[in-house]
Amino acid sequence: MEAVELLALILALVVSLAIFRLSTKRARARSSAPRQQTIKVRDPAAARHALIDQADAFSNRPPTPFPVPLITGRRRRHSHGITTVVYGPHWRALRSNLTATILQPRRQGLLAPIRRDAIAALVAGLAASGDVVVVARDSVYTAVFAMLTRVCFGDGVDESRVRSMERMMQEFRVAIGEAKVFARSTTAKLVHWKQWRRFLAFRGEQTALCLK
User: Record's Gene Ontology CC terms (predicted)?
Assistant: First the structure.
């Protein structure tokens, strides 16, 4: 029995050392990575040339809000969007498609009925609160989220599911901020395994609510 306990202790020590070594190696790799320099353009003509005339080649995307990859393996290469893909030709193609289709000014008129319904629902919700003090931000967020749900999924989504989607996305946003500790090392994922498991569970919840 003592021999088994000794072997288990040695195995645990070896695994801990391996994880620590891997975490240290990754931390050194991140710290030694070259940082992107900040470029300040002070000339108005040069700024217009870069931001407007050459926007597709110059403009970069904002930093990804996800501190850890949500999709790994081979699927990750085919699951990139404009907020996750590395800046380059792929990102510029996605940006051009977005500008030419969804953000095209001629298509904005198609969304007018949905916007009117969202504004009417917002006004009705605020009026129904009576003399109670409400946070306008929450009401506006709910109205905008319901409008985006109609744009993405049509009119066939019932109100209860829309509320479930909204609640899940709000919890997901909070989890993204908390997940920064998981991006440090494999050891952090093991120490905070409950939070890490909850973070990974959001993928299944998103699939259940949005794709089924």
Answer: membrane
φ, ψ of residue 19 to 5 degrees: the values are -65, -40
Please give the pLDDT value at position 46: 85
Q: Distance between CA atoms of 117 and 112, rounded to whole angstroms?
A: 9
Q: Which two tokens stand for residue 79?
A: 């699951």
Predicted local confidence at residue 186, as pLDDT: 72
Give every CB contact of residue 198 below 8 A, 6+ residues apart in sequence.
175
| Rounded CA separation 20/28 (Å) | 12
User: Residue 36's pLDDT is what?
Assistant: 58
Rounded to whole angstroms, the Cα distance separating 194 from 182 reads 11
Q: Is 118 exposed, middle or buried (0-12, 13-18, 19+ CB in 10 A)?
A: buried
Residue position matching structure tokens 């969202």 = 118
- CA torsion through residues 109, 110, 111, 113, sign: positive
Give the burial string for 145-177 (b: 16+ CB within 10 Å, else e): bbbebbeeeeeebeeeebeebbebbeebeebbe
Residue ranges of the chain with per-residue pLDDT less than 50: 29, 33
